[in-house]
Amino acid sequence: MAVPTTDPVRRILVVGSGTMGSQIAALCALAGYVVTAFDVEQDALDRAAGRLRDLLARDVAKGRRQQSDVDAALGRLAFSAELDPAASTADFVIEAAAEKLDVKRDIFARLDATAPAHAVLATNSSAIVSSQLAGATARPDRVCNMHFFNPALVMRCVEVVGGPQTSPDTIATTVGLARALGKEPVLLAKEIPGFVANRILNAVRDEALFLLEEGVASVEAIDTACRTALGYPMGPFELMDLTGIDIGYHAKLARHAVSGDPRDLPSRTLTRLVERGELGRKTGTGFYRYDEEGRRHTRPAHGTDAP
Ligand SMILES: NC(=O)c1ccc[n+]([C@@H]2O[C@H](COP(=O)([O-])OP(=O)(O)OC[C@H]3O[C@@H](n4cnc5c(N)ncnc54)[C@H](O)[C@@H]3O)[C@@H](O)[C@H]2O)c1
Predict the structure, then answer these.
(1) Which of 17, 125, 145, 147 is catalytic?
(2) pTM of the full predicted structure?
(3) How far is 186 from 146, CA to CA, in rounded Å?
(4) What is the average pLDDT value for the chain, to the nearest integer?
(5) Which residue ranges does the chain devote to CATH 1.10.1040.50?
(6) Does the C-beta of 124 come closer than 6 Å to ligand 1?
(7) Which CATH fold would you assign to the domain 11-187?
(8) Judging by DSSP bridges, how do beta strands 34-38 and 92-95 pair with one another?
(9) Of 124, 119, 78, residue with least CA distance to 98
(10) Can 145 be counted among the known catalytic residues?
(11) Is 250 labeled as catalytic in the residue annotation?
(12) Percent of the chain, pLDDT > 90?
């Protein structure tokens, strides 16, 4: 039976408190929602709380936010390693856990068992379409993709897309929430892995990796060309280091799992970096090397240290 959705969203649960989940939780709290940020790792919750406090304090120091708004938002934001209590009162859930289908299906099944019938279960996945998760629940009409961009506090675009069973009400609630968070929702008419912006970005990345692997130009030269000729704020390698090389790698694998097209497999450079645990800024090394202060340094183009 279709569930009426006139209930306004008041309480939001964000599942996963890593790079994306922590900022999505802060964004929701700043917009006036009562928010719980959940993670399976207590460490991840502690890191998220510390990171957000620093980030928001910096915003206040730079005059971008009022201290009173930040205090009020932090007062509305709880960090918890227990899922069920927050799920049982949530009007809207945004899942931002690891980019793995089995992990997300388990989370959706558990949320479905606990969250109120009217609650929307949205995934922030970069590549997994929500119809792959909807079947893990008994409410496929309340499941959709709500895809934020990194850093979620800053980037204005939110892609929204439903699967074949998603109800118009669910889409309307999700688009409405994106607007209430101060974002610019981009509504897709049908599902496709990677959605719109990342598919375009991927085409650029694939070409950048091709040029690198063919020895046509260095990481730095390719990034410079994208910035200075195409007006990109950041080159493709700088951006991969910022978002996390593993995220792009897993997105590629997920896309390949759906398409079976060998061209969708991660390139040999991405695979090598992931195998070495060189995931970009978060590990201090990726296509570039980062010092203690986060300053970027070029890695040698040849030899064992090359990306
Ligand atoms: N990083 C990006 O630029 C970006 C952008 C848009 C969307 N996304 C998507 O957002 C999601 C999260 O990405 P991220 O970059 O924040 O990853 P991340 O690795 O920084 O954080 C993931 C968090 O999920 C937690 N987690 C793992 N299993 C869990 C479970 N069963 N329940 C609850 N928490 C669990 C981990 O402990 C970790 O803290 C992914 O689906 C990714 O595709 C990422």
Answers:
(1) 147
(2) 0.85
(3) 10
(4) 94
(5) 197-297
(6) yes
(7) Rossmann fold (3.40.50)
(8) unpaired
(9) 124
(10) no
(11) no
(12) 85
